[in-house]
Design brief:
The protein is of the alpha/beta class and 258 residues long. It has helices at residues 10-19, 36-40, 49-55, 68-75, 93-97, 130-142, 154-162, 164-181, 186-207, 211-218, 224-234, 237-257, and strands at 2-6, 24-28, 44-45, 58-61, 83-86, 104-109, 119-125, 144-148. Strands 3-2-1-4-5-6-7-8 form an 8-stranded mixed sheet, with helices on both faces. The structure holds NADP nicotinamide-adenine-dinucleotide phosphate.
Length: 258
């Protein structure tokens, strides 16, 4: 199948890297010169989105939301009965349907681990046939893991998994700094922190253990972990994290309304 990607920034490039071995890729972006590297590797690149979209069976829209209107106006006559996958934050399925009524539309909220093809890809669909549904899942699996959601959850998902890597980075940065404060060399503190996050996440995932159960397991009465957890609770970490996710959700909702 031919896939046209429009917009080769962080997201477009990550998707292209993830799917390039499975699909015949067609590419267009803001600056044609920036596509040279893809052109030299044998991928088809175009000066206009119109030429690009006219070639694809599946169209991936990875431009900024401010460019949505002009790009959709440019390509709308070449979208009939095709699958459109949009990653544009704040652009609803309803909005895209104003330009094209008979396309199959999927809206996706990825997150930054997409750059190593490890994004968690929340997606919602309007109507879709079996063939396109299979292709959609294949594409989403190629650069991460798909999770189907209702479109009404999309702002909350933006707050949770979209912004989540930013929140987790703050926690990790604090732990690395704490390790340094206690005399652990910087590179070792960093390594220990990263492996602790990876190991804990993998354990929870592979054994399906709820976080509260894991916490109880490492929390010996009167021991070292409960001494630290007490300080986290005193610092209102749970409230701060809940508020952070909610603030991001509210901002996404505000953008969507605009
Ligand atoms: N980054 C994230 O973590 C993330 C997460 C979830 C969703 N998203 C969404 O994904 C979309 C892309 O984000 P991004 O981070 O990849 O942005 P980005 O790095 O700024 O990439 C946008 C790309 O679109 C190109 N472009 C600009 N105008 C265009 C036009 N008229 N036609 C075709 N291409 C055009 C730009 O080209 P030039 O650079 O040459 O101008 C650039 O390569 C956004 O809608 C964003 O909301 C991003």
């Amino acid at each position: 199948m031919k896939v046209s990607i429009i917009g080769l920034g962080t997201v477009g490039k990550s998707i292209a890297e993830g799917i390039k071995n499975d699909y015949d890729l067609h590419l267009s972006s803001g600056s044609y010169e920036k596509l040279n590297i893809w052109n030299r590797s044998g991928f088809k690149t175009y000066k206009t989105n119109l030429e690009n979209a006219s070639n694809g069976d599946i169209i991936i829209l990875a431009v900024k939301p401010v460019n949505a209107e002009s790009v959709l106006n440019e390509i709308k006559d070449y979208l009939h009965n095709k699958l459109i996958i949009s990653v544009m934050a704040g652009i609803s399925i309803e909005y895209i349907k104003r330009y094209i009524k008979d396309a199959y539309i999927a809206r996706v909220m990825p997150n930054i681990p997409m750059v190593i093809q490890k994004s968690v890809n929340a997606y919602c669909i309007d109507r879709i046939n079996d063939e396109y549904h299979n292709e959609l899942l294949k594409i989403l699996n190629d650069f991460g893991t798909p999770v189907e959601i209702k479109e009404s959850y999309i702002d909350a998902v933006t707050g949770l998994s979209g912004s989540g890597p930013g929140f987790i980075s703050i926690m990790m940065d604090s732990m690395i700094t704490a390790g340094i404060k206690l005399g652990i060399p910087k590179d070792i503190s960093r390594y220990l922190t990263i492996e602790t996050f990876l190991g804990t996440a993998n354990l929870m995932k592979s054994k399906n253990i709820p976080p509260s159960e894991l916490r109880d397991e490492v929390m010996t009465p009167g021991g070292t972990t409960i001494a630290g957890i007490y300080e986290l609770e005193k610092g209102n970490v749970r409230t701060a994290i809940t508020n952070a996710v909610e603030a991001s959700y509210k901002k996404a909702r505000e953008y969507n309304k605009q």
